[in-house]
Amino acid sequence: MRRWGFWLALAGNLAAQGMGGGASALIWPAQGEYIGSSQCALCHPAQAKSFRVNGMHRAMAAIGDCDILQQHPRMTWSDGPYQYLIEKTEGGYRYSVANGAERADATLRYAFGQGKAGQTYVFEKDGRYYESRVSYYRELNGLSLTVGAQNARPADILQALGRLMSPNDARDCFGCHTTGARRGNALQLEKFENGVQCEDCHSPGAAHIASIVDGKPKPGTIRNLRGLSAESTNDLCGSCHRTWETIALLNIRGPNNARFQPYRLTNSRCYDPSDQRIACTACHDPHAALVTDAKAYDSKCAACHNAGNTAIGKRVCKVGGEGCVTCHMPRVEAPGSHHLFVDHWIRVARKGDAYPD
Ligand code: HEC
Ligand code: HEC
Ligand code: HEC
Ligand code: HEC
Ligand code: HEC
Ligand code: HEC
Ligand code: HEC
Question: Could you tell me if the CB of 178 is within 6 A of ligand 3?
Fold first, then answer.
């Protein structure tokens, strides 16, 4: 394992802040005032238009705008004695659970996840937030247990309905799936944007706008994010996709960690912290849709794996062919997720090999 020095420093730092949560709180942009992505779109129409088709844009929706629920106005599922129902009513989407003797219900408030893999619902009771115990999964085109819910039997009917989130849990949940709901270490739901938007990555924009007096903004008023190294990009994207350090600290082992791309990529022999050719942004345009044509990634590999690169020397592919990622970035099912995540630990993956970790 690598970089233990940093790991220890981070552990100390998190402990000092009383944090053990999923979010990498160290680089959370908290300074300044949010102005909203519709403002950015006025002067940066190209990025605004292409970002609309990126899945991050739809990482969370208010329940009334949720496509999946509109397409599935009634969904049922059962787990042992518990019968689940999500149903469209005049007052919104009612979510209930009954076990013959008891019943609990709530009106859903927020839909988390664009639904490419799955979608989980959040509701409120007595001023506290709960995560639904069942989620929608694309692969099933219906409901099943929320990831993590299989680990604990509910002690009562309310627990069967959902998991009560601690204030920190709720803050982190909204922090990664919205823009501006998390302010520093606090959660506020008065004013924020659904989904990951411009100011999540670029930092709040008020100072940038204020500095534009002659058509040119003052440098340093907004993060330009250009030319970041692989390591700095891992830190930026990893503030939500989780950094190597976060996964090591939380000790998440096995195929469960396939969904944490910065962690997996860092473990690959292709990874060089100072090289931009292996940064997340070398393969993913943060303002455009995820590219799903495997061949489109060949040129990204060839940036390093080419005949002229004497540093890699003899390591050339004897199997070869187009679509390098189909063999070298295998798809792995994270248990309970009903989704095959692309493993970012680029490697020679042979049939029957154990999952490297
Ligand atoms: C009133 C117009 C205007 C608005 C609104 C605006 N920008 Fe800009 N922005 C500019 C101009 C002008 C530049 C300089 C462009 C150049 O030098 O090519 C710029 C530059 C940038 C840069 C590059 C900064 C650099 O140092 O190179 C980023 C990133 C950026 N804007 C993001 C945003 C985001 C995010 C928002 C919304 C929060 C936003 N802008 C809102 C006009 C605007
Ligand atoms: C503020 C949190 C946040 C940051 C920062 C962030 N992401 Fe994401 N990203 C998400 C969430 C949440 C999703 C899941 C969207 C969904 O499926 O609902 C996601 C999804 C994605 C996807 C899949 C999109 C799709 O259509 O399936 C890619 C690719 C991605 N992110 C790349 C990046 C890269 C590259 C960076 C850094 C430049 C980055 N992300 C930074 C939160 C973030
Ligand atoms: C540290 C940031 C972070 C936190 C905290 C977080 N998420 Fe996510 N979430 C992500 C990212 C990033 C993805 C995209 C995963 C991918 O496609 O690689 C995601 C994906 C999802 C998905 C899509 C389905 C899936 O399995 O990928 C759902 C649903 C979801 N999150 C719900 C939640 C809920 C509910 C909470 C709070 C209890 C939460 N998330 C907390 C970052 C976060
Ligand atoms: C997931 C993180 C992420 C989100 C969300 C995001 N950006 Fe960016 N943006 C980046 C990165 C990374 C770069 C640097 C790209 C590069 O290296 O060329 C960048 C660069 C830019 C630039 C400078 C382009 C240049 O080459 O001068 C502008 C302007 C910009 N973004 C505007 C926006 C606007 C407007 C939005 C919202 C519609 C937005 N960004 C959303 C990550 C993001
Ligand atoms: C060498 C190229 C490469 C690099 C570098 C890379 N990715 Fe990917 N990524 C891919 C490929 C290929 C896919 C699969 C696209 C598809 O769905 O067909 C993918 C898919 C994803 C997805 C969708 C999740 C899923 O499996 O459904 C997310 C999120 C993502 N990448 C985030 C990141 C982040 C964050 C980084 C930086 C730590 C990163 N990627 C670096 C090639 C790359
Ligand atoms: C930043 C440069 C860079 C990029 C981009 C890159 N690699 Fe690598 N890759 C390397 C280096 C360096 C090694 C290690 C060579 C050695 O140890 O001799 C390596 C090793 C490998 C190995 C052998 C790994 C092992 O564990 O034995 C495979 C397979 C591989 N790369 C495939 C790919 C594929 C496929 C892509 C594109 C998805 C890619 N690489 C992108 C630099 C890169
Ligand atoms: C059909 C599956 C497949 C495709 C497509 C493929 N590879 Fe491979 N690759 C393999 C296998 C299997 C090995 C291990 C060969 C051996 O040594 O037995 C390998 C080995 C490698 C190695 C390591 C060589 C060494 O000596 O350690 C590199 C680097 C590599 N591939 C890069 C690539 C690149 C770049 C591409 C795309 C141009 C690519 N591969 C396409 C299956 C594939």
Answer: no
Taking the CA of residue 238 as reference, the ligand 5 atom at the shortest distance is 35
- CA 113 to CA 120: how far, in whole Å? 7
Cα–Cα distance measured from residue 217 to residue 276, given in angstroms and rounded to the nearest whole number: 27
- Cβ(171) to ligand 3 under 6 A? no
Indicate which ligand has the atom closest to the C-alpha of 242.
3
Place of tokens 């100011």: 199
Pick the atom of ligand 7 nearest to 350's CA: 12
Write out pLDDT tens, residues 31-52: 789 999 999 999 999 999 999 9
| Pocket probe mutation, ligand 1, options 43, 57, 224, 226, max atoms within 8 Å of Cβ | 43
Distance from C-alpha of 264 to C-alpha of 130, rounded to nearest angstrom: 30
pLDDT tens readout for residues 105-160: 999 999 999 999 999 999 999 999 999 999 999 999 999 999 999 888 999 999 99
